[in-house]
Specification:
heterodimer; A: mainly alpha; Helix Hairpins; 3 helices; B: mainly alpha; two-stranded antiparallel ribbon; globular
C-alpha cells in the first residue's frame, strides 16, 4: 500500500461529491435534478464504504456488502422515483417541484 | 526539450479546457473566451505531441528497451511494440493481493511508437476541427436565443482529452475509462441539437449500441485481470504481454470447449471494437450519428473515436496474435468493408455517403489486423484519419455554403441532388475535397494509395485470397461511389435554386429552419432565395488546406514502391517485400471505378428531382 493514493484523498473526493449532491438536491426545482442529487450523495457514501473497507479492513467483506446493498437500494429508489416523476408529468405536464404542491397543508 | 516527461500534459490540457469552460462563468458565458481556451490549450498539447514524435524519431526511439519477447505466432508476424517510455504512480491498493498488502494498482502513461504516431495524428486533426468549428458553429443559436457554443467547445475538448488519454494509457482500466468517456461525449455531441427528435434518437442509438460492445470489452478486461493479476501493457513478468503469460493463455482451455482462454479474451475485447468501430453487426449507429454537427462527424465519427476500436486491437495485438481468432476479425472486417461500400453507392445525403465510407474503411483496417498486417492497419488508420477528417470538413463547408441557397433545412442542404457545380462557387473547398477524394479512392501518390495498397498487398502476399478479393471489390466500389459524389456535387449544373421537396414533410423541419445552424443575417432567412452558395470563411478553409496537405503527403511515410519503410522501421516491424502486382491491380481497380462513376454520373442529374441513373437501370429493384 506504500505510495498509493492516501485514504484522506479518497474521503475528500467522497465529501466533495456529497456536498455537490446535497447542494443539487436542495437547490434544484426540477424533480429529476433532485433525484440526481440524491444519487450523487448515495454514491459518495459508497465510495466511503469501499475506501474504508479497502484501506482499513481489507480481509473482511462488510464494507463491500454494505456498498452493494446501497447500490441495490439506490436502484430501487431511482426506479420508484422516476416512475413517480413520469406519473406526475403525465398528470400535470410539469415536473417542477414548486408547482406540484397540491398536498401542501 | 524533455517532451517524454511532459507527455502527461497532452490529455490533461484539453481536460483543463473542459473544466475551465464548464466551471468558470467568465469563460463559459462568452463564446469567444470558450473557443480561445479550448484551441489554445489543445495547441499546446499538439506541440508537445509532435515534440514527442520528433524526439522519438531523431533520438532513435524511446529510452527503455522491453524485455525480449518473441510474439511470432503461426502466420502472424508481430515483433512487439519496440522501445518505450513509461511513467506511472500507485493509484490504489491492489485488491488481488489481500494477504500481501504491498501490492498497488498503478496507473500512468506509456509512450511507444504507435502511441507517438496516434498522439500526433489525433492532436493535429482535433486542432483543425476545433478551428473549423469556430466558423461552422458561429451562427448556431438555441431556439430561445441563448448561445450554446461554449458547451459545444467544452464537449469537444473533453472528447479530445479522453481520446488522448486512451492513447497514452498504460493499462486497460484507464484505457476503458477514457473509452467510456468518449462514448459519453459521442452521445452528448450527436444529440447536441436535441430539439430535433432525430438527433435525440440517434444519440440514444449510438450510446446503447456501443454499450453492447463495451459490456463484452469490460468482461474481457475482467477476464484478463483475473488471469494475470494486472492490466498493465508491457512484457515484463506480471504484465499482460508477458510471453509466459501469453503462452499460458494461448494453451489453456476455457469453459467453452474448443476455445482457449486467449480466444475468449480476444473475442470479448473484439466486441468492444465491433461496437466502437461500427463493424457488422453493430454498425447501425454510425450512419445515424450524422445528426450531430458536421465538425463532430469529422472529429468523432471519422478521424478519432471510431479509430479507437481499431487502436484497441492494435494495442492488445499480442493477445490477438496468440488467440487464433484472427480469421474471425478478418472476416468481419472484410465483410463490413464490402457491405458498407455497397450501401454508400445508394445514398443521397453527402454526410451519409461519407459515413458509410468510414464504415467501409474501418472494415479495411480491421481486416488488415485480421490477416496480421499490423503496420498496414495502423498506417491506414493514420492516413484515413487525415483524409476522412478533410472530407467531412469539406462536406461541412459545402453544407454551410448550400444553406445560403436552400435555407437552413438539413434535408435540403445535405442532399447531393440539390447540389451540382459547387466547384464554381467554392474553389478552395473543391480543391481540398479533390485531394481527400483521390486519397480515399487510392490514386497514386495520395495517402490512401499507399496505406490501402499495403493492406491488399499483404492480403495477397499472405495468400488470404478471399479477403483480398473482397477488399479489392470494396476498393472498386469506393472509387465508384466517391466519383459519383464528386460528379454530382461539384460538376454539372447547380440545381439548388429549385431543391427537391422533402421526402418526409414533417413539421420538425420548420423548427430546425427557425433555429438554423448558421443564421446569417446577410443570407436572408427564407428558403428558396436566389442566393448562390458561397465559399466558407478562412477559419474553415484553413484547416481544410492543412488536412489536404497531410492527405496528399502522409502516404510517403511508408511508400514500399519507392523503398521507403520509415513507418515499419519506426514501429519496429519488418518491412514487407515489395511486389508490383498488388499496386498495379489496385490502381487499375480504382481507375475503373472512377471511369465507371464518371460515365454513369457525368450528367446524371439535370434537375434535382431526377432519379439516380443506377436506380433507373435497376428498375423496381433499384427503388
Amino acid at each position: 500500500m506504500v505510495g498509493s493514493v492516501p485514504i484522506a484523498w479518497v474521503l475528500t473526493l467522497a465529501a466533495a461529491l456529497f456536498c455537490i449532491g446535497l447542494f443539487g438536491a436542495l437547490s434544484r426545482r426540477n424533480t429529476v435534478g433532485i433525484l440526481m442529487g440524491i444519487e450523487l450523495m448515495l454514491n459518495s457514501v459508497n465510495i466511503n464504504l469501499v475506501a474504508f473497507w479497502r484501506y482499513l479492513q481489507p480481509t473482511g467483506t462488510v464494507g463491500l456488502v454494505f456498498a452493494i446493498f446501497t447500490i441495490t437500494v439506490a436502484a430501487a429508489e431511482v426506479a420508484v422515483g422516476l416512475a413517480m416523476v413520469i406519473a406526475v408529468y403525465r398528470a400535470r405536464l410539469t415536473i417542477n417541484a414548486d408547482e406540484v404542491d397540491t398536498l401542501r397543508g | 526539450m524533455p517532451f517524454f516527461d511532459l507527455a502527461w500534459l497532452i490529455p490533461l490540457l484539453p481536460l483543463a479546457a473542459f473544466v475551465l469552460i464548464t466551471l468558470v462563468p467568465a469563460i463559459g458565458r462568452s463564446r469567444k473566451a470558450s473557443y480561445t481556451t479550448a484551441i489554445a490549450l489543445l495547441a499546446i498539447s499538439t506541440v508537445i505531441a509532435w515534440g514527442v514524435l520528433f524526439q522519438a524519431v531523431s533520438g532513435d526511439g524511446f529510452p527503455t528497451t522491453p524485455e525480449p519477447a518473441e510474439l511470432v505466432h503461426e502466420k502472424v508476424h508481430f515483433e512487439g511494440f519496440g522501445t518505450f517510455y513509461a511513467r506511472s504512480f500507485a493509484w490504489a491498493p491492489d485488491s488481488l493481493s489481500l494477504s500481501d498488502q504491498s501490492g498497488t494498482f498503478n496507473i500512468g502513461y506509456r509512450l511507444d511508437a504507435p502511441v507517438a504516431l496516434m498522439l500526433a495524428m489525433v492532436t493535429l486533426a482535433a486542432l483543425c476541427i476545433h478551428i473549423f468549428s469556430v466558423g461552422y458553429m458561429a451562427h448556431d443559436e438555441f431556439p430561445a436565443g441563448q448561445q450554446r457554443q461554449s458547451r459545444f467547445f467544452s464537449y469537444i475538448a473533453l472528447f479530445t482529452a479522453s481520446m488522448l488519454g486512451m492513447t497514452l494509457a498504460d493499462n486497460l482500466l484507464l484505457f476503458f475509462i477514457c473509452w467510456e468517456l468518449m462514448g459519453l461525449c459521442s452521445f452528448l455531441l450527436i444529440g447536441f441539437w436535441y430539439f430535433k427528435p432525430s438527433a435525440r434518437e440517434a444519440a440514444k442509438k449510438a450510446f446503447i449500441t456501443t454499450r453492447i460492445g463495451d459490456v463484452g470489452m469490460m468482461l474481457g478486461i475482467l477476464y484478463i485481470y483475473n488471469a494475470s493479476g494486472s492490466l498493465t501493457f508491457g512484457t515484463a513478468p506480471g504484465q499482460i504481454f508477458n510471453p509466459e503469460f501469453l503462452t499460458a493463455i494461448g494453451a489453456a482451455p476455457s469453459l467453452i470447449s474448443g476455445m482457449t482462454v486467449a480466444s475468449a479474451m480476444a473475442l470479448l475485447l473484439f466486441m468492444g471494437t465491433v461496437g466502437k468501430s461500427a463493424q457488422f453487426p453493430l454498425h447501425v449507429w454510425l450512419p445515424d450519428a450524422m445528426e450531430g454537427p458536421t465538425p463532430v462527424s469529422a472529429l468523432i465519427h471519422a478521424a478519432t473515436m471510431v479509430a479507437a476500436g481499431v487502436f484497441l486491437v492494435v494495442r492488445t495485438y499480442p493477445i490477438f496474435a496468440v488467440s487464433g481468432i484472427l480469421p474471425v476479425v478478418a472476416f468481419i472486417g472484410a465483410f463490413t468493408a464490402l457491405f458498407a461500400a455497397l450501401i454508400a453507392v445508394a445514398q443521397y445525403d453527402i454526410k451519409r455517403i461519407l459515413a458509410f465510407s468510414t464504415l467501409s474503411q474501418l472494415g479495411f483496417m480491421v481486416a488488415a489486423l485480421g490477416i496480421g498486417a499490423w503496420v498496414a492497419a495502423l498506417f491506414h488508420l493514420l492516413t484515413h484519419a487525415f483524409f476522412k477528417a478533410l472530407l467531412f470538413l469539406g462536406s461541412g463547408s459545402v453544407i454551410h455554403g448550400m444553406e445560403a441557397t436552400v435555407g437552413h433545412d438539413p434535408e435540403k442542404a445535405q442532399d447531393i441532388r440539390n447540389m451540382g457545380a459547387i466547384r464554381k462557387f467554392m474553389p478552395v473547398t473543391f480543391l481540398t475535397y479533390i485531394a481527400g477524394y483521390l486519397a480515399l479512392a487510392g490514386i497514386f501518390p495520395f495517402a490512401g494509395f499507399w496505406s490501402k495498397d499495403e493492406i491488399v498487398a499483404d492480403a495477397l502476399k499472405e495468400s488470404h485470397y478471399v479477403v483480398y478479393g473482397v477488399l479489392t471489390a470494396a476498393a472498386f466500389l469506393t472509387a465508384f461511389y466517391m466519383t459519383r459524389q464528386i460528379m454530382v456535387v461539384f460538376f454539372g449544373k447547380f440545381r439548388g435554386y429549385e431543391p427537391r421537396p422533402n421526402d418526409t414533410d414533417h413539421s420538425e423541419a420548420v423548427a430546425v429552419a427557425a433555429h438554423g445552424h448558421d443564421d446569417h443575417a446577410d443570407h436572408g432567412h427564407h428558403a428558396h432565395t436566389a442566393h448562390d452558395p458561397h465559399e466558407s470563411p478562412r477559419s474553415m478553409t484553413g484547416p481544410l488546406i492543412v488536412l489536404a496537405l497531410f492527405a496528399t503527403l502522409a502516404g510517403f511515410a511508408n511508400a514500399g514502391m519507392l523503398n521507403i519503410h520509415w513507418l515499419s522501421e519506426f514501429l519496429n516491424q519488418k518491412a514487407p517485400e515489395f511486389n508490383p502486382t498488388a499496386p498495379l491491380i489496385a490502381t487499375v481497380t480504382a481507375l475503373l471505378g472512377i471511369f465507371l462513376g464518371y460515365l454513369v454520373y457525368r450528367n446524371a442529374f439535370a434537375r434535382a428531382t431526377d432519379r439516380d441513373p443506377l436506380a433507373r437501370a435497376l428498375g423496381a429493384a433499384g427503388k
